[in-house]
Amino acid sequence: MYTSPSRYVQGVDLIDRAAEYLKPLGSSPLIISDEVVWGIAGEKLEASLTEDGMEASHEVFGGEASMNEINRITEVVKKTGSDVIIGLGGGKTIDTARAVADHTDLPVAIFPTAVSADAPTARVSVIYTDEGVFDSYLFYNRNPELVAVDVRVIANAPVNTLRSGLGDALATSVEARAVARANSRRMDDTARPTLAGLALAEKCEETLFAYAHQALRDNEAHIASRALENICEANTLLSGLGFENGGLAAVHAIHNGFTALDGDIHHMSHGEKVSFGIGVQLMLEGAEKAEADKYIGFLQSVGLPTTLADIHLENATEEDLYKIAELACSDSETLKQMPGQYTPGDVVEAIRAADSYAKALKEKSA
């Protein structure tokens, strides 16, 4: 089975012509965004839609993709009579918009304001508790009807968001290859990965190595360049289709394992935590030096975390590491998609090994 959004649109100043892509879906969109994003792009999107004859309204996202927040906004939709949901913002806003659309049986359009993760194209939401602890995955019958990426908006987003997306996107090929080697099923357990998914994951990786450094420089200078366009597509479309049709493995399980801890790690972005998880999976797999150097070296070259200190866990205790590992090895997690079987003890040793390897590589390149 292969799954994807009905339509993916990317271009410069896309928000100015958003109605062109939204009108086939409905006439009264509800825009879900947080307060910060509303000031950056929400007001402009609402004005653009209104000018083109649509009856747009908006609802402020509370900050956590929890069932309580999803249910709250679902009730808002029922009162407003909106006929299409727009998720405008980052990963948790997008996950919430997707869930609200599913609860109300309405089409959903995703307008990411940063390419910090590959969530926009997916038919799954990551659900957290109100306190931000990973809770579950929600799978839907369909992908978003529309994903629209305005490269001008991305060019003016904080460069750290683009950097974060590089980490999430790099994990796509690392995990998809592991799932393919294991002949496992995808994260929703409905089907085996497709060759198309693996090909997209590999193209995603190729694009990152070719354009990431230039795209970071252009993002810093707010230039909507071709390199930035290519990385927007890699971080969003190629990575999104690659993970959904190729599968997830240990990397994202480690990311979710981090939610078992309190502290400064929760100030790190999704892609930053995923970046460290790439090293952990490589160590679990027993990656040879050339492979480990390639991936961990790339992450370090673009400024992404590869050591425990980088993710504020340099003082993590043995108990802390086992909490991460036990959650990562739980039945609901994607580490089971890996070739072979791993215990929490194996994962703890891989965490230590990833930290040690990355520190040595940093010292060598200093």
Topology, please?
Elements: E1 8-11, H1 18-22, E2 29-33, H2 35-51, E3 57-60, H3 67-80, E4 84-89, H4 91-104, E5 108-112, E6 124-128, E7 134-139, E8 146-150, H5 151-155, H6 159-182, H7 195-220, H8 226-246, H9 250-257, H10 270-285, H11 289-301, H12 318-328, H13 344-365
Parallel strand pairs: 1-8, 2-3, 2-4, 4-5, 5-8
Antiparallel strand pairs: 6-7
Helix pairs in contact: 3-4, 6-7, 6-8, 6-10, 7-8, 9-10, 9-12, 10-11, 10-13, 12-13
Biggest sheet, open or closed, and with what strands and sense?
Answer: 6 strands, parallel
The CATH homologous superfamily of the largest domain is named Dehydroquinate synthase-like - alpha domain
Low-confidence stretches: none
- Could you name the CATH topology of the largest domain? Dehydroquinate synthase-like, alpha domain
Quickly name the level 1 CATH class of the largest domain. Mainly Alpha
Strand order of the largest sheet: 1-8-5-4-2-3
Mean pLDDT reading: 95
Indicate the percent of residues in helices.
40-55%
Query: How many individual domains?
Result: 2
| Shape assignment | globular
CATH architecture of the largest domain: Up-down Bundle
Spatial extent as radius of gyration: 20 Å
Instruction: Determine the N-to-C terminus distance.
Output: 46 Å
| Strand coverage percent | 5-15%
